[in-house]
Write a structure and sequence with these properties.
The chain is an all-alpha fold. 67% of the residues lie in helices and 0% in strands.
């Protein structure tokens, strides 16, 4: 879909929602950003248009999308899940460690946009192993009801933070002041680096191809000399 067509769709939808021209222009700009970053690939244009309008309405506080729904604190679910996992008289200790892990995940932005059950599952699995319980990912997902890849991903994200390098004693007693960058931001930076490496490799290949063609041209020119017939 072209920008012209996108503007038409956004304008039509914006008028149906009684949005002013400023909001419509902002939504068009968001669509342009999505198009430039290839976020529209493989997605229905109507979905991308709707998302751009929604973002605009949220940022501008425009009705009917000015809904400030508070995020759910994952800490509220830790004890509930811990009681289902048969930790016996160590339930309180495991829960305390898991709560500490969830709180640290929140400070490192891992909880943003994620279901609380996934964070609780990862935290409880780490806490269980810390306290000597041989729990697997499958044991945890039976209780928290998420896919095993979700738990593994949360554990991987936590493993990339500074807190993961601390000992248990340090982790329970020391509050690191630094905050880790959000996973989505790190993923974007990684993709940018990958794109840059790919671009540099392409440039090298082009230069190499040009050099090969030049050498071939020189070789052919020599053959066309006075001794070419021999």
């Amino acid at each position: 879909i072209t920008m012209k067509r996108a503007r038409e769709k956004i304008t039509t939808m914006g008028q149906q929602l009684n949005l002013n021209q400023h909001c419509i222009d902002m939504a068009v700009n968001f669509y342009g950003m999505a198009l430039a970053r290839r976020l529209t690939n493989g997605r229905k244009s109507s979905h991308v248009v709707a998302a751009c309008i929604y973002i605009t309405c949220r940022m501008e506080g425009t009705a009917p999308f000015n809904l400030n729904i508070p995020s759910v604190d994952p800490c509220l679910y830790v004890m509930r899940y811990a009681n289902r996992m048969n930790f016996g008289d160590k339930t309180h200790e495991v829960s305390r460690t898991a709560l500490r892990l969830v709180q640290r995940m929140k400070r490192d932005w891992i909880h943003t946009g994620r279901r609380p059950s996934g964070l609780c599952g990862a935290a409880l699995l780490i806490a269980a192993r810390i306290h000597g319980f041989n729990r697997t990912v499958l044991d945890v997902i039976k209780e928290v009801k998420v896919h095993e890849n979700t738990v593994r991903k949360r554990m991987q994200e936590f493993g990339e933070t500074a807190s993961s390098s601390l000992t248990l004693e340090e982790f329970m007693q020391v509050d690191l002041e630094e905050e880790h960058d959000p996973p989505a931001f790190l993923k974007s930076r990684k993709k940018d680096r990958s794109d840059k490496v790919e671009e540099e490799a392409t440039e090298e290949m082009v230069k190499l191809e040009e050099e090969i063609n030049r050498q071939i041209a020189l070789s052919l020119a020599k053959k066309r000399g006075p001794w070419a017939k021999y």
